[in-house]
Amino acid sequence: MRLFHTFAEDSAMFDDDNLVSVAGLVPVMTLAEQTGLTSMLSDKVVIGTLLREFTFGHTKQLESVLREHLCTLADRADLLPGAETRVFVDIDSLLRPVYGHHKQGASYGHTKIAGKQVLRKGLSPLVTILGTDLAAPVIAGMRLRAGKTGSGKGAGSMVTAAIGTARKAAATGTIVVRGDSSYGTRKVVRAALRGGAQFSLVMTQNSAVKKAIDSIPDDHEWTPVKYPGAVRDPDTGEWISDAEVAEIAYTAFASTKDRTTARLIVRRVKDARYPDALFPVWRYHPFFTNSTESTVDADITHRKHAVIETVFADLIDGPLAHIPSGRFAANSAWVLCAAIAHNLLRAVGTLAGGPHTRARGATLRRKIVNIPARLARPQRRPILHLPSRWPWSDSWLTLWHNIIGHTPPQPATT
Fold it and tell me: Could you point out which of 126, 186, 315, 394 has its C-alpha 20 to 30 Å from the C-alpha of 255?
């Protein structure tokens, strides 16, 4: 690597008034204007000094903006392709660490790091996302809670709101609610059924669930699942895998008025702690569902609930890298603003097309937003001069034409 120019000591100067460091914000902010984000905030959120005066009421106002803006974005940018067939509502929580003694609501809660449970001081957002088989997920709702709050607290109302948002966002197909064992509760199941949705929820292995698992016959009932790393037996044509699935009818919450009978699908895998055991030692992972898919397909569909971790990764890599305020209400507003920004960036990727429709947030910021430009005004007409060798210029121009050149539909005249 070598330089082709020789510079003097005074060759670097900050003297150009027409340089723009993040020219990608032009189409991004234009899209925000086209989808009415500014007017929604003005109409719904009444606030004085930003962040310092936020209350619980302002948080509810921002929740309304998040839901309404998502519906508008979905209509403008086709955020949920395939919604006429199936939409997934995934719910989960994460724990964001905080430090010091002045963060309201901060308390010690459990989180997983490198597969191990650790106790950590922080705040815990509860998140619901919407996704399809063809689309990257968007955020339907987010609610900040104290770090020690149980993962499932408030999940029922969050699921109800997410299902309503999905319907407003033109989800005319089946809606499937997915969650881990913290959300395999009767409140979440009841919310899904009342919303006309299916559910696929991990069940805590209590005595009733263990009894149901033990009642599954061991012969001719377990089906190998095609996972990455599985191989096909050349003689039988069947998949050889350490994972197998089976199902049995199960009535959950039997002692309550919300008793529900559906399918208990159980995935079993060989316990790696006993590789030399004379007989296989299995670990069982049950989930409760009323879907109509086959046992194998229902298991594969349920495991895709892990897509919510990509949303968490985007948030942690961006606005939730740090919880900024000492006030709980201000931080609640912050996480909702982060959700609105996430959805806006997802719409930008959709309009840029190609691989950007499912790209991570950091990728979109690097390739689409953080692009330098020189602003010129020939004949008072603003023009952005962009790098001639920008590797993603085609996608950027596709986004530009889809937004700047967009003509909103005119209302019908009578």
Answer: 126
